[in-house]
Amino acid sequence: MSLYYKSTRNSDMRAAASEAILTGLAPDGGLFVPERIPVLKPSMDELKSMSYQEIACVVMKEFLTDFTEEELKDCIQKAYDSKFDTEEIAPLVKAEDTYYLELFHGATIAFKDMALSILPHLLTAAARKNRADKEIVILTATSGDTGKAALAGFADVEGTRIIVFYPKNGVSRVQELQMVTQKGSNVDVVAIRGNFDDAQSGVKAMFEDKELGRELAEKGYQFSSANSINIGRLVPQVVYYVFAYAKLLENEEIADGDRINVVVPTGNFGNILAAYYAKQMGVPLGKLICASNENKVLYDFFETGIYDRNREFVLTTSPSMDILISSNLERLIYLIAGEDSGRTARLMEELKTEGRYEITDGMKERLADFAGGYATEEETAERIREVYEKTGYVMDTHTAVASHVCNKYREAGRDGCKCLIASTASPYKFVKSVMCAIDENCAAADEFELLEKLKTVSGTRMPQAIRDIMEADVLHHTECDPGGMQ
């Protein structure tokens, strides 16, 4: 059965999956959502013996119904190949009594690789399907990880160009070097003198600018997005939650039907929304626990029903979560509003004009699948050190936020479910913060010196992505103010 996509701000708008992927953002500024969440056909018992690639095909063919199975298999084969340094693609590691789903074994050592390895192939297939006659310009704002993963995915892909905007001084040194050393004849990287929300708002404004769209079309270009506002980014993320449950079952860590809680370090809300979609598909997930850092706008929302970005923006050691406008939350708002696109549009307008909105009591009741928690900077560092001293396992700062929140949730004794943590980045990507948490004497050391030390401490191989940037030339030097993005 064909599955179509609607805009969160206009339910009358309908698009096939390939059209939604190609467009990125709906023309009215809304986000594309499936008109229904499909149900997983195979049982978990059948899925447990499948590879990551096979499970990806099972999940994605239910969402992307206007792609043939052959087209999907081709995209999956090209995406999940030797660029990942583990055969499982997303290995599970147990530390203490918690399972860490390591989503950072791709080319850019962050979870964005899981979706951005396949998005260019889905996008070019979608362009062929829709007989697109214009060059696709990928316009992306990044809080650190999306940028590099998108640049790597789209570099030299025929028929595409990519422009990435990132906040100057708002990402780690490794993250910045990964972006500004990116090769490719079709890539551009721009540092903006502002924060991630400035970058994201600027990108969305350009998408919604009809006059700019016409000007580009006249010159043979059309915009699309690699951010998680693109449904082609979100659907591949559903896969790894299905895979994780199947592998826990195969490893006899759980019995079929056991509920497991999922804890996700969250900024833009896409990763945890993918877990929600997996649960709606039939994966026996319990609570979806949204872990925030000191920019705890989402924690406050789940506690009060009020989303309020009118607050101080905090630069933390988990910069990919330094976000006050979580764009993917709009998709959840649409669902808990009973798919009322008019109400969703009004709330999003309130956010744009007043910086806040409040949901109704009825909408709050529909948030029962979710719980929230947050970690301070001190608690994040303490958790890295504590887990390392007890188990030898080294995690990055974002994963540590989730680990702290997971611990607090357990201590509150709310349920006895086992917990799966989405481990979203390699500790090598945030080496200074990680090593300072483990050994305070590292504070004065150079970031590159600490990479060797982390290698010794963790007993892991230094990722190729890190080795590649150590001697790479800086190729991108452009900076602008937020008002200069267009």
Topology:
Elements: E1 4-7, E2 10-16, H1 17-23, E3 32-34, H2 44-47, H3 52-63, H4 69-79, E4 92-95, E5 98-102, H5 112-116, H6 119-129, E6 135-141, H7 145-154, E7 160-167, H8 173-180, E8 187-192, H9 196-208, H10 210-218, E9 221-224, H11 231-250, E10 260-265, H12 270-281, E11 285-292, H13 297-304, E12 306-308, H14 329-336, H15 341-354, E13 356-358, H16 361-365, E14 370-374, H17 377-391, H18 397-411, E15 418-423, H19 431-438, H20 447-458, H21 464-470, E16 478-480
Parallel strand pairs: 5-15, 6-7, 6-9, 7-8, 8-16, 10-11, 10-15, 11-14
Antiparallel strand pairs: 1-2, 1-3, 4-5, 12-13
Question: Which structural traits does this protein have?
Answer:
six-stranded mixed beta sheet, 17% strand, five-stranded parallel beta sheet, globular, 486 residues, Rossmann fold, alpha/beta
In brief, what are we looking at here?
This protein has a single domain, classed as Rossmann fold, CATH 3.40.50.1100. It is built from 21 helices and 16 strands. The strands form 4 sheets. Strands 4-5-15-10-11-14 form a 6-stranded mixed sheet, sandwiched between helices. Strands 9-6-7-8-16 form a 5-stranded parallel sheet. It has a 3-stranded antiparallel sheet with strand order 2-1-3.
